[in-house]
Specification:
- The chain has two helices and six strands; from the N terminus they run E-E-E-H-E-H-E-E.
- It has about 120 residues and is an alpha+beta fold.
- The protein has a single domain, classed as RutC-like (60s Ribosomal Protein L30, Chain: A), CATH 3.30.1330.
- The model has no long low-confidence stretch (mean pLDDT about 95).
- The chain is globular, with a radius of gyration of 13 Å.
- The longest helix has 19 residues.
Length: about 120
Amino acid sequence: MKKVINTIDAPKAIGPYSQAIEAGNTLYISGQIPINPATAKVDAVGIEEQTEQVMKNIGAILKEAGYGFENVVKSTCLLSDMANFAGMNKVYGSYYVQNPPARAAFAVKELPLGVMVEIECIAVK
């Protein structure tokens, strides 16, 4: 059985998808971009600031579903340019000091709203 997870503390979906879906003891978080949920805009400019907003959005969704960053087992990071990898990695790593999840990182041609980073993840209780 699947349960839709939605919180006002993360950006509303900008398409036909849910912020997250919980199925059993697994949470699937849709790709999050650096939209500030308070303004509904991309306020962050640099890669580190954008990654910080993305991680805050992920954290809000995790919290709403009763999970935490310690429950994340897999992340996929999409970057507009691999030159942004170090900046993204610095911020991302600060959320996973011990036992970080498995991860893949890719450069893609383009991301929604022209952002620099999008991250999706899977968490398990």
